[in-house]
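Bit of a strange request maybe. I'm writing a small parser for structure token strings and I need a real example to test against, not something I typed by hand. Could someone generate the tokens for this chain?
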Amino acid sequence: MAETAGRNDPFLAFRFEVKIDDLPVAGFSECTGLQLETEVFDYNEGGLNSIVRKFPTRTKQVNLVLKRGIVDRKLWDWYFQLTQGTIDFRNGSILVRDPSGASVAMEWHFRRAFPCKLHGPDLSATQSQVAVETLELCHQGLERQQ
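Reply from user aminoacidic:
Good idea to test on real output. This should exercise your parser:
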């Protein structure tokens, strides 16, 4: 009897966690910036006008942007140290869990990160939304582990 093909559903984007070295695990509602981009050098070869040769040059990483409801001031303190002249580089990881939450399906590691932008919550007395802060991290490398 023929076996049916196994079903591989895409991973869900809402079951993730962010770990940053010695900071307590924070529940982030959004994480963007898992992106690398390689710059390309165009070379117009003489005598061959129908083709432009393309060569990869350097690869750069995009800043990570993390959003969360404000529960403590640990991230604020980390950013404030930077404004006072102390750069505290930290490593971290972003884990995407399987639908049950039991195991890690994807994992990225970032290294030598520091906060480069902190955006406090938008406040309005006419709405009952959660106060959300946004932290932007510059980093010096992003690697996918799984």
